[in-house]
Amino acid sequence: MAGQLEGKVAMVTGAATGIGAACARALAREGAVVACTSLPTDPTQAVVDDINAAGGRAVNKPLNVTNVEEAQRVVEEVAAELGGLHILLNNAGITDDGLFMRMKAESWRRVLSVNLDGAFNVTQPAVKIMVRQKEGRIISISSVVGLMGNPGQANYSASKAGLIGLTKSLARELGSRNITVNAIAPGYIQTPMTDKLNEEQRKALMANLAIPRLGTPEDIAAVVLFLAGPAGSYVTGEVINVSGGLYM
Model-level pTM? Predict the structure, then answer.
């Protein structure tokens, strides 16, 4: 049986690990051809090999999202080589935490450069392709801290809040072109980032959750599939909070 995304081309940034890798695999299982992008030093090829071995189709496209010319080139290559670009998942992101009054300007700029400027660099050329196609789905991975803030993460919170503003503005600009634009706001997800939490931090975190477990990358991938598939065709400008009740 054909998947719900058969005939679609998807591009996932930050596809080497965690949420990005899970989303790339899920999109491929539903029939999309997936361009997996991440830094050249990241283990993206392993994800691509897994997808292809499972009967899907994926390609590895190394990309530093902070480089505007490189981002444009890679997006255009993906569309030319794979037959369009129907789904863009902006997932590439980093943290560089510290209290704001001691935060170095470089830490601020680095996080905003990857998390927010990177989304701009990739999305703008993707939008041009989607407008020509008269079809597209743009999904950005924000965070609950973009909605609620978090001590020690002013730079990360600002970047993720910026993605929400970008999402809502683009949804209004592009809805008439048959392009939906949405964001997902994960809470604490079991990834290499949360693996760094010690037992005391983990217990404190669980006390704030309505569902007392960390989320999984697959929890996020399920929402990506909803937004990318036929069921999400009338949803745009939304921020879907997937945090186990951390933020309500």
Answer: 0.96
